[in-house]
Design a protein that fits this description.
Elements: E1 3-4, H1 5-12, H2 16-24, E2 32-33, E3 39-41, H3 43-57, H4 62-69, H5 76-110, H6 116-119, H7 129-139, H8 143-154, H9 157-179, H10 187-203, H11 209-221, H12 223-232, H13 236-252
Antiparallel strand pairs: 1-3, 2-3
Helix pairs in contact: 3-4, 9-10, 10-13, 11-12, 11-13, 12-13
Length: about 250
């Protein structure tokens, strides 16, 4: 039995565009094609797609997923054992973070001041400053980073509250769009992608469309960004990536 690309997209909760992309890069080529050239996926193809999505959820970039799945010495059980081990470690970390957040919420509700050590328990063994340091190492010599630092230094507490309120509002609207099944290449999704680009440009540094494309790929390849966007709604990171690419295409394609 075989399935159309639309059926597989529905089964897996991904977009047709994502499946086309996986085919184009050789990550998931459908086992059959009709005389008219339409893709048809077999049960074996669905098994491979499941493995791909497991690894993507764990934050693996596509090239690493391909290398893992095409390893001739690995069988499906090897992949499942590795994924179980990684998921177990993630679950343990998330449980610790949830407990720390709950502790912070209780303290705020009761008017208790947390110590600096308690406040940063939510980050576990990670130092929050490492991201600032990493940003400086990766982009410190760029005009965009310098502009971001300059603007951020001038913001007041009220400015930051307003910026965060805009982020929260955008996230709620985007999550609602994904929950309703809105396509990434649809007008509402592309408008939200454009709003995302303009927000960064307004408060941090100018983001041309080509730079926004790079951000889009980072949102799914970097586990930290992916976890943030997927926390708004499952699958939102990839949906946003596709929406940003579609929005960039419509603004830059002659």
């Amino acid at each position: 039995m075989s399935y159309s690309v639309g059926q597989v997209a529905g089964f897996a909760g991904v977009t047709v565009r994502t499946l086309h992309h996986y085919d184009e890069i050789g990550l998931l080529a459908p086992g059959e094609r009709t005389y008219a050239g339409h893709r048809r996926y077999s049960d074996a193809d669905l098994d491979r797609l499941q493995q791909i999505l497991f690894y993507r959820e764990l934050g693996f970039p596509l090239d690493e997923v391909a290398a893992l799945l095409d390893d001739p010495d690995a069988d499906p059980r090897t992949h499942l054992r590795r994924q179980r081990r990684l998921l177990t470690a993630r679950i343990e970390k998330l449980q610790k973070m949830a407990a720390a957040v709950e502790h912070a919420l209780e303290a705020r509700t009761m008017g208790i001041d947390l110590t600096p050590q308690e406040r940063f328990e939510v980050f576990g063994d990670n130092d929050p400053e490492q991201y600032a340091e990493e940003a400086g190492q990766r982009w410190g010599g760029t005009p965009a980073y310098a502009e971001s630092q300059r603007r951020a230094a001038a913001y007041t507490k009220e400015d930051w509250k307003r910026i965060q309120a805009e982020v929260d509002d955008w996230g709620e609207r985007y999550a609602a769009l994904v929950a309703a099944g809105g396509p990434p290449a649809g007008e509402p999704a592309m408008e939200l992608a454009e709003e995302h680009r303009r927000h960064i440009s307004r408060y941090y540094f100018e983001v041309p469309y080509e730079m926004h494309r790079c951000f889009a790929e980072m949102y799914v390849s970097d586990e930290r960004f992916k976890a943030f966007y997927d926390s708004l709604h499952p699958g939102l990171a990839e949906h946003l990536r596709d929406a940003i690419l579609a929005n960039a295409d419509r603004h830059t394609t002659p």
